[in-house]
C-alpha cells in the first residue's frame, strides 16, 4: 500500500477533465443569482476549493494556483458545488466578499451588454482597481 | 470592393476566440436566474444567435451548428447577450421554452450537487427524455 500517494476521491474522478487537465467553472452569487465570473480549475484547485470552502482556481495565464481574493481580499466563500450532466463543467454558488468579483472593480465580470451592435459597459465600478490592488 | 464577403461586425471581432475559433457560453434563465447550461459558439453560431434572437450553439461532438431546441422544441429566446471583462466568455439571458434546458429532462444541466463527497442528483426530471425526443 502506497501511503504517500495523493488521495483520489471518486467525486474528482467523476469529472471529465479536458486535455489540459482543467474544468471550466462558473461562479454565481448565492444571494442575488448574478453570474460573477468564469474561470478554470485543475484537480488540485478543485480539491482545495472543496476542502477549504473558498474558491481556488487555476490561472492559465500565470500557470499556477490562484486563490480568489489573494490580492484583492475578494474571497469567494463556497456554499455549493454542482456538476453538469456531461460531468465537464462546475457551477459554484458563492458568497462574494466585498461584493466585487471582477478585477475592474465591478460586481460581475459580465458587465458589457450587446446594444445596437456594440458591447457597452452597463454596470458601475464599485471600487477602483487602484484602491483594490494599490 | 468584395461584396461576397461575409459581414464582420466589430462586436464579433471584439471577442477573443480560442484556438479552435470558439467561445464558451453560459445560458441563464432570465426569470429565475438559474444557470441552465454551458456550451460553445463559433463565430457563425453567435452571429445567428444575435440575428435570430434564439440560441444557436456549436456542437463540438457533432461538429456542426446546433440550434438549441431543434429536436426537443426547447428553444432559448435570447433576451440579452453579455461579454466578460476578458472578452472571452459570453453570458446569455434566455427565456427557456418548455422550462427544460437539459437533455435529461431537467430544468438545468447543473442538477448534481456535491454532498458528503459524492455528486448527487438534486433536481427532478420534469419530462422523460423518451417523451422529449421519442
Automatic annotation (TrEMBL), chains A, B:
InterPro entries: PRA-CH (IPR026660), PRib_AMP_CycHydrolase_dom (IPR002496), PRib_AMP_CycHydrolase_sf (IPR038019)
Cofactor: Zn(2+); Mg(2+)
Chain ranges of the Phosphoribosyl-AMP cyclohydrolase domain: 37-111
Subcellular location: Cytoplasm
Enzyme Commission identifier(s): 3.5.4.19
Subunit structure: Homodimer.
Family statement drawn from the similarity comment of this UniProt entry: In the N-terminal section; belongs to the PRA-CH family.
HAMAP family noted in UniProt: HisI
Protein name: Phosphoribosyl-AMP cyclohydrolase
Organism whose genome encodes this protein: Acidihalobacter prosperus
Gene: hisI
